[in-house]
Specification:
Length: 200
């Protein structure tokens, strides 16, 4: 009984914060979990940059509305779901992810939520649980599931290493070099084949 756990940004859709950095003309917002392993530190820093520039949820959602899944992502996900249960596990937020989930055919998503003031300022964020990806994988295993996992960033390594099989997908050269024991793929068909092989 397998469940495949996938990261979202960088694996199925473009990085939301990079897209917003480009749209808003604030290049420092391009920093992601590929650059900063401490997610709380990263998010608090992002919120301070937004506040400094007077930007809120509305502006980010306007950028997200223009984002499409990565080429081939929906086809990959549709095929994967024909032979495996799939849960997307992301450190993103419901307020960001919903339009992208619609474009991906409404897969199951476990993520977090933003605290938003009436004027649209993002005042904080609530994480679903500590180390949400690793915690979720361990919980699924405690229910009798074997997990397979794939992601691209530092915050995916816990769930990848804890799973029966784990894969890096379109990761950075640094992360690949630091984790030579984790198979790394660049194309969806390679990842699909690796998942199928691991389930045999």
């Amino acid at each position: 009984m397998y469940i495949t756990c996938l990261d979202v940004e960088g694996v199925l859709v473009p990085e939301i914060w990079i897209a917003f950095a480009e749209a808003s003309g604030i290049p420092e917002l391009k920093k992601t979990t590929r650059d900063e392993p401490d997610y709380d530190k990263l998010m608090n820093w992002r919120l301070s940059v937004l506040k400094e520039h007077g930007l809120g949820l509305k502006e980010i959602q306007e950028t997200i509305a223009k984002i499409d899944p990565l080429p081939g992502a929906k086809k990959f996900l549709d095929e994967l779901r024909t032979f495996s249960q799939v849960i997307l596990i992301s450190d993103t937020f419901t307020q960001f992810a919903t339009p992208l989930m619609e474009k991906l055919g409404w897969p199951t998503l476990f993520c977090n939520t933003l605290e938003v003031a009436e004027d649209g300022e993002i005042t904080g964020f609530r994480m679903r649980c500590e180390q949400s990806k690793l915690t979720t994988v361990k919980a699924l295993q405690s229910m009798g599931f074997e997990t397979l996992a794939s992601g691209d960033s530092y915050n995916d390594l816990g769930m990848i290493k804890a799973s029966k099989a784990g894969f890096l997908f379109r990761s950075t050269e640094q992360i690949k070099a630091d984790n030579p024991d984790i198979p790394a793929y660049e194309e969806y068909d390679e990842l699909l084949a690796a998942i199928k092989k691991a389930m045999k």
